[in-house]
Design brief:
With 450 residues, the protein is of the alpha/beta class. It is built from 14 helices and 19 strands. Helix 13 crosses helix 14. One of its GO terms (molecular function) is 5'-3' RNA exonuclease activity.
Length: 450
Amino acid sequence: MEIEIATIGGYEEVGRQMTAVRAGDDIVIFDMGLNLSKVLIHDNVETEKMHSLDLIDMGAIPDDRVMSDLEGDVQAIVPTHGHLDHIAAIPKLAHRYDAPIVASPYTIELVKQQIQGESKFQVDNDLVKMEAGGTMAIGDSEQVELEFVNVTHSIIDAINPVLHTPEGAIVYGLDKRMDHSPVIGDPIDMKRFREIGREGEGVLCYIEDCTNAGRKGRTPSESVAKEHLGDTLRSMEDYSGGIVATTFSSHIARVKSLVEFAREIGRQPVLLGRSMEKYSGTAERLDFVEFPGDLGMYGHRKSVDRTFKRIMKEGKGNFLPIVTGHQGEPRAMLTRMGRGETPYELDDGDKVVFSARVIPEPTNEGQRYQSEQLLRMQGARIYDDIHVSGHLREEGHYEMLDALQPQHVIPAHQNLKGFAPYVDLASSKGYSLGRDIHVTKNGNTIQLVE
């Protein structure tokens, strides 16, 4: 059976992920994401109203024209998790393919919300939920099967899809860390990865997230971040002024920890910002998390401002607002607070806790720096980097190669410079660049089996 891989997006940057695998006449697409930095550099861009071709020209979504070079039919579109760099191009591109969107339950719900917000295109693809551990036949040949393996990441309900073929398995390894004591959900299923590496024809190809391949050591568990966060907030228990926290809106485990520690130090937590309301509200509705019954979630500007007025009236020392804006996004809640555009007034000595690390991309770094400076100008004290990454470091990559023992590896989720550390570590395991390490670019195809 012929096996061909099209590297469509995410092979020159962290963002706009999209990969297609052809096994015989059957094609499966993994991820359809957005490069958010290409949107943020423009003012007042409303992607939901834009044509896909304009977004492709902007470099914001994958250029999927290479799909015309693949001879076969798309049988499924499979987003690995609900981050925007993996799902936000679905409303722009999915309608081109007569195929269902297959994902885990939480991811499907976020995809549904993305589609509902789309103004330019009608997206009628079937939405199919499949749990981690589930399998699905692909095409009519009865020779290709899709499997979801549970992984841990900085968003709940993440999976790594595996495409089983007569030539061996294709493991699409974006995005994960090895967490054996997560705050929400099950640990990464390393037992299943080891089984896949040793059953049948083994693993033909492993496509790997190289975001942190250049960082030494092993990515800590989310439970480590929880302890760090708890220690930080407990140190503020006697402070009577304002404390504000920000984190990734989609990081439900981190939001849960913030809510718990706010109550522990005698403050009422409140979630503020549209994305905070969306991600946490969806997770609670699907029973992935249980928040206190009196937890307020407010997304619309008027309700947020009303909440800020209430906080100022009843005393900042009684509340812990958990807000959007950890990357310094211009329209996010924390950035507006720094500019003095909300009823919440920062005083000298107030605490701002960043339970997030800045995404290493020039636009984000610049916006985050500007946001922090605005907060400091108002006298705020910054508590930074109370966080653990959602991506494997060097030792995690070694563990995955040992578990899977793939014949070929394809680095992804980075630029050419970012691939270099992964090439070095794979080379130390006996792989060779150009032979079985395939460093590629967006828009290329790799023929693994002819």
